[in-house]
Amino acid sequence: MARTTTSRVRKRDDRAAYVFLLPWFVGLVVITIGPMAMSLYLSFTDYSMLAPPNWVGLDNVERLLTDERLHNSLRVTFTYVLVGVPLQLAVALAVAVVLNRGMRGLAFYRSVFYLPSLLGGSVAIAVLWKQIFGSTGLVNDVLALVGIAGPGWISDPRTALSSIILLHVWTFGAPMIIFLAGLRQIPEMYYEAATVDGAGPLQRFRRITLPMLSPIIFFNLILQIIGSFQAFTQAFIVSGGSGGPSDSTMFFTLLLYQRGFGELDMGYASAMAWLLLLIITIFTAVNFIASRYWVFHES
Q: Is the pTM of this model over 0.85?
């Protein structure tokens, strides 16, 4: 009798769990899996949104291999990721180390440094950045005070991408907060023992802080790589949606937007989206494999 009662209670709990999970499953199918499956189908079609999709097989894949503008957008995006992400993480870690020393007004400084991360992907900040680095912007006004004629930072192909990378580095607040939380978890006794053994600040940072913080560094690295590959708003606003001079700020996502919504070539845009997913997957997998050699786990 007791076993039968327990079985009934378990079945009732299972039904209740399924009821609570049902909205999540519906959202997963309708919002995630469904659109992904439709996008995969459209990537093999010629679809303009004005007529039914026309199956073209691997034609879109062949276009990906021969599209010079797409290849340039990949170069721009890779530069943005490979330069911007390490710089941003380095600045975030440096500021976190300084704030971890227990200075007065820590909550205030933490909020000030975190604020750009909340606004960095917004249209308002992108517009502000465009005004600061414009040919008559704040940066050139400051340079003019010392007799230097600054270039049009966002209108010059040589400096346009650097301006957007600088905007990305400026939004270091989110990884900084995560670094700061990780630094607070490192036992102080490690530093005390190293100091007794004669280790200097740089040695303590290299031998204790970096190894103990390596899981946090890896976590931030993965998040920032994925987010950087998906960057869109900054390039769209700063370049006016054109990709900048000589396509110098033509991010992959911006070109995808132009192909899909500007030229109504949704089939090719879907193929581009799946290429982006493949690139992010490869970068993530490579980082997970490489993490075996540099991420320290205390256990």
A: yes
